[in-house]
Amino acid sequence: MSGQSSAYAELRKLMREAGTLGSVNALLAWDQETYMPPGGADGRAEQRSMIATMVHERRTSFHIGDLIAACEQDATITNAERANVREMRRDYDLATKLPASLVGEIASTATKAQEAWRGAREKSDFAAFRSWLEKMMGLARQKAACYGTPAGGEAYDALLEEYEPGARASDLERVFTPLAKELSALIAKIKASGKTESLSIKPPAISAAKQHEFGQFLLKSMGFDMNSGRLDTTAHPFCEGLGPGDTRLTTRYREDEFAGAMYGTLHEMGHGLYEQGLPKHDRAGEPLGEAISLGIHESQSRMWENLVGRSRSFWTWAQPHASKTLSAWFGTQSVDALYSMSNLVKPSFIRVEADEATYNLHILLRFTLERALLRGDLQVAELPGAWNELFEKLLGMRVPDDRRGCLQDVHWSCALIGYFPTYSLGNLYAAQLFESAREAMPDLDRRFESGDFGGLLSWLRTNIHQHGRRYRAGELCERVTGKPLDSGALLRYLRGKASEVYGVS
Amino acid sequence: MSGQSSAYAELRKLMREAGTLGSVNALLAWDQETYMPPGGADGRAEQRSMIATMVHERRTSFHIGDLIAACEQDATITNAERANVREMRRDYDLATKLPASLVGEIASTATKAQEAWRGAREKSDFAAFRSWLEKMMGLARQKAACYGTPAGGEAYDALLEEYEPGARASDLERVFTPLAKELSALIAKIKASGKTESLSIKPPAISAAKQHEFGQFLLKSMGFDMNSGRLDTTAHPFCEGLGPGDTRLTTRYREDEFAGAMYGTLHEMGHGLYEQGLPKHDRAGEPLGEAISLGIHESQSRMWENLVGRSRSFWTWAQPHASKTLSAWFGTQSVDALYSMSNLVKPSFIRVEADEATYNLHILLRFTLERALLRGDLQVAELPGAWNELFEKLLGMRVPDDRRGCLQDVHWSCALIGYFPTYSLGNLYAAQLFESAREAMPDLDRRFESGDFGGLLSWLRTNIHQHGRRYRAGELCERVTGKPLDSGALLRYLRGKASEVYGVS
């Protein structure tokens, strides 16, 4: 701490306290999803609202603002500390720019809009949701106006700031458009090959207990520290970093569908490895101890789920273990068959069920439409038509009803506009970062085949995790891979698999 | 709320907030014992200390003090509300009488004293603990001086206030002394009968999963609301009321010893039924929504564990269920054999392993000695000798070493002086209250035999649970049973069992 000004030291102390309170709220949320009995719901809402208010008050106090301003004038701090202050300023401005009345209106509208959305989706009745979506778009425009549009940008950029600091819609468009064009063509070729059905193989039913045992085995093998984390079961899987030394993953089991739990566990583990790799012990509550963005977080989950977990080398290693723990069926299959089974590409209507290749087209669709809605280029009433038209263009299928179309996702009813792109950013960053990791370790496949995942993890720790929010996502990408994000690596990766599994390219 | 002054309304609001924060801390504690990974320990300590400090600050603020004073002058509030304010005053005075420096010194000494106690117990080395116990007694005297001795009382009474508001050492002595005398004689007769060994029967090993299933079945059958609570596994069983609608029980399983888990579960369930019966929804954070005292809390746990769970009528009902879920062995035994097996009396050195009858002698011993230590009538250096002498007098056995003697309990090292009597108070209140319940429902045994425990539960709800802290323990006892607490009911109950099981009285 020597050389640090007293303002900076106090700022760190206060941020740590706010962070500690925030981690308490994270436990309240985790417990609510895992073990809380239903009768505890009202009390839990009261607890969470109280703690959330305290965290917000602490993070937006005038005193914090003064301390940040003092530190910005402090010439004695290091570059890393300067980045810490820069990110504190960003958070502070973002948190103080929205009037409490707007925050409250968004929250209460979201509660009702979600209710309306649930009913509308069930009946596939867009008319019942339309006015709520109009309200949400209006509130999103107000929010964007409060944040302020970045120079040369658009209102959508202001919303992106919440999820992907520094990202711009025009940059996303530049990366997503060629990706979508090439992917559409590739997916059409895969479909034309007619091979998916013959490659679709499935093990017999596997008990949840066996799947859980195997999941834990994978976690340990891949470097997730079980002494500082755990795996539980919830309706909707998630990863929650509860603070230094406590990272909790959840998954769900279906006996007739082992892949959902296994890849779900690897996905959450990817998030969890990032959380465990952040320097939280020294930097609890500070930007330097936090994840950069949703896109970078998602790059970690997608990397372990897809680039590692769906690789041939993964199956070379995992096959005997799966045969022993999950089902002898795995031992009766070739590694090629297991590899193909894990990499089938098949257009479908529902995003959350989509495979690795078609998934990005689902995202491009949403990004395009929500951006147009926010701009006013598209009216909410026109959404179903626009959705179905673009869906058919991208994925070659006619959407049968809005339930399987524009009503399928909860996000818009929750005021999450500008969130969808982070999913594809995750895939794009994962592929580009993984190419660099492979350059640094040309024997990566050999390592995976022998169950050595430590090389990749330590590469991620060094190049990504340890920095916290020192660099913005785009900057980190350039530092690590030598170039800005583009669609090349992801396309090369998906084409490679299409060639191996389907013989097309 | 009509007719309530604005001071009273604000007081309730602030108490509710402090209560909500307190329940957050309870979840942090529960999670630490159940699911937290070891790596989370440091972060958890930081979270708990922060929330505990906030709760303390809120409960001891000058503003709260002013509001309480204003309400004490308020002639418009009801008798129930007046009791609420009376208890708030009590808590406030207790919390504000100790200087922060003394609280801090007790906490830090306790941490080190526990460490020393663990080492001393392991090596049965009293000398290694002696100076710590002297420190603790000194701090306890300082604490008692801050609280102030009640008129006509002694320093020990001031310490009792924390655990058993309104209790006086002289009253306890008046009840405990005849109890101990009669029990010693009864236990000697039981021992002389020589029947314990032949009555000691045991089922074969039972898996934890089966024991857990049976425990859950008992909870549901006896009225514990599983929609507002749950049962988990921990090293040390406990019950934690996490707020309205959320009461958590824990137990532990040993395959070769089903009774420990079963009676442990019933014990915690008794605490849990009390927590579920308190009017927490309307009265969260207020005395009227809280338990009266440790003694009354313990009376609920002991009643369900012992007076219900160790009755012949319980086994008449439970036998076929135990046979089906736990082990067919239960079906091969007579109800009398199961009843006797659950009511063996056998003097032993360790309190936590003691049976229902000898248990109270362990408590009388500790009460007598800690009271003498506090007064200075007994020096810490003389403790082992005094312990062993009194133990032999009460239980007829010579203590072989201090590990099985005065070093066995953690309490004194944690500054818990004045706590032990609440265990026996629990047994005494349980027996006296149960006699009244039986008078109100003479067919109680018939009900239990048919699995109907709802009558007893609703009697407890009406007579005890719903009142929160409206009445002090002694006052409630008189209201419900028509007389002050005495040893008669407990002695009648234990003699009845001794007669049925051992043929002595």
Mean pLDDT of chain A: 96
- Report helical residue fraction of chain A: 55-70%
DSSP, total strands of chain A: 3
Biggest pleated-sheet summary of chain A:
3 strands, mixed
End-to-end distance of chain A, in Å? 56 Å
The pair of chains with the biggest contact is: A-B, 37 and 37 residues
Oligomeric form: homodimer
- pLDDT < 50 runs, ≥5 residues of chain A: none
Which class of secondary structure composition applies to the elements of chain A? Answer: mainly alpha
The H/E string of chain A reads: HHHHHHHHHHEEEHHHHHHHHHHHH
Overall geometry of chain A comes to: globular
How are the strands ordered across the major sheet of chain A? 1-3-2
Strand content of chain A: under 5%
Counting DSSP H or I runs of 4 or more residues, the number of helices of chain A is: 22
Radius of gyration of chain A: 23 Å
Describe the structure.
The structure is a homodimer of 505-residue chains. Chain A has 505 residues and is mostly helical. Among the domains of chain A are: 1-97; 204-341 and 435-469, no CATH class. In chain A, 64% of the residues lie in helices and 3% in strands. Chain A is built from 22 helices and three strands. In chain A, strands 1-3-2 form a three-stranded mixed beta sheet, sandwiched between helices. In chain A, helix 13 packs across helix 18 (421-440) and helix 14 (312-325) packs across helix 15. The first copy, chain A, is globular and about 65 Å long. The termini of chain A are far apart. The model of chain A has no long low-confidence stretch (mean pLDDT 96). The A-B interface holds A 17, 20-21, 23-24, 27-28, 31, 34-44, 46-47, 50-51, 225-230, 232, 242-246, 281, 284 and B 17, 20-21, 23-24, 27-28, 31, 34-44, 46-47, 50-51, 225-230, 232, 242-246, 281, 284.
